[in-house]
Amino acid sequence: MHRRDFLKAAGIAGVSLPAVHTLARSGGREWLRSEDLYGGFTVERSTGDEKQYSIDEATYRRFQEKNTMFSRAHWDPLTQEMRRELSGIEIKRIQNHDPGFTLIDYAFNLAAWTGSGIPNFYRWTSGRGHSDTAVFDRPPLNPADFSPLELTAIIKKAALFFGASLVGTTTLNEKWVYTDAYYRSHERGNHRGPIEAKLSIEELDDPVKLSDDNRARIPKACRYVISLVYEMDPDASEVAPSCIAAAATASGYARMALTTGTLAAFIRNLGYRAIPMGNDTALSIPIAIDAGLGELGRNGLLVTPKYGSRVRLSKLFTDLPLVPDQPIRFGVTEFCDTCKKCASLCPSGSIMSGPRTREADNMSTNPGVLKWPIDAFACYRFWHENGTDCNTCIYVCPYNKPQSWLHDAARNLIAAKNETLNRAILGLDNACGYGKPGSADNYWKKNAFMHIKS
Ligand code: SF4
Ligand code: SF4
């Protein structure tokens, strides 16, 4: 039996993925529904090459990883001084028995990070003694046996199996790759950080994460990108800004590392290259937008139809040929124009309430893309005043809602992109009391005793 026939007979070639229903097609667009992918939204997708953002090529600058807030903590004197000034808040909050900041809450949050620190999940090549060494000579997969569409379906199925909540594919846009990587701990290479490494895309066989001459090299052939989304726990996320909501973030980072590293091992076992990444090396949000997973919100985060911004992101570059997804629209830009809820409830005033701009008003954002830049320093300062990270802009966003017939009705009105309807929906959201933080006490008590014998 031919290999493809064998796979079809075994049901592997027809890997089952979330069903997407096309409701209508017109003028180069299609309207889609999928409970699994889009929750209760009907999304609009271009059938052509249309991109989602407006870029001014003359002013656009690729970003330097050194300027992310987490990197700045290692070199920026202003950030370091702020951290010194605010150190010790955690102990005070524990001693005060502040709800959401008790010893239990801090222990819970720190423990949730554990999986993200396991070495080697973000390796760029196989390691000796590891399981991800190609089991065939390269190229092991005969293109006659698998079409890119079949391979894409298999990779997506595997990504969901390994722990992603959503997965999309796109091709590499070099604009989103950092100009320089910033390695700040031993976990990102066998060295002591921080080290700046010039990032380049070159004709070469294997990726180089950090060479002796401080360069990071991505093979040109790794032009296919897998974007991975992880839902953060809804109950924990609502206790923002506290260690409980922070644990939802931390647990997302742990799943990112495990899932992305495991998917990389799967791809390497097939004889292809795989470069797994967390927040490093390239901008995760525009990649996820290209891969059809959501739109950019006023809060500076990816807004997905199914989970809102209550997600974490990772990505993987590979030379395994994949069929790219198309970007989607479901009214986020228009709703954010009206809503501004994240801006008014942000405790640090880091989110703009005005219109989008191409200006970069601080070093942790880059110019040229029309968006709402965030004041990352003010946000990070609040985290230190608060004693842990925040998540308020994730929790309060009206897109962060469980599915119900009422919420689905609102979703369909939002997708109409009508300002009057958007104002009415926002009024209802406020009238229903959405956006108020949950209580730490309730978090620990909810369902807590169901596994204890009385
Ligand atoms: S995490 Fe908190 S402080 Fe930072 S932008 Fe969001 S709401 Fe503001
Ligand atoms: S809270 Fe409102 S303005 Fe902010 S991202 Fe969500 S929808 Fe947009």
Explain the overall architecture.
- It is globular and about 60 Å long.
- A hairpin with a 2-residue loop joins strand 1 (21-26) and strand 2.
- Helix 6 packs parallel to helix 9.
- The protein starts with a helix and ends in a 9-residue tail after the last helix.
- Helices cover 33% and strands 14% of the residues.
- It is built from 17 helices and 13 strands.
- It has helices spanning 3-10, 35-38, 69-72, 77-85, 89-95, 103-112, 148-162, 234-237, 243-269, 284-290, 332-339, 341-345, 376-386, 392-395, 405-414, 419-431, 440-445, and strands at 21-26, 29-33, 42-46, 166-171, 180-183, 195-202, 215-219, 224-231, 274-277, 295-296, 302-303, 311-318, 328-329.
- With 454 residues, the chain is of the alpha+beta class.
- It has one domain.
- The longest helix is centred in the middle third of the chain and has 27 residues, at 243-269.
- The strands form 4 sheets. A 4-stranded antiparallel β-sheet has the order 1-2-3-13. A 4-stranded antiparallel β-sheet has the order 4-8-12-9, with helices on both faces. A 3-stranded mixed β-sheet has the order 5-6-7, with no helix packed on it.
- The structure holds iron/sulfur cluster (2 copies).
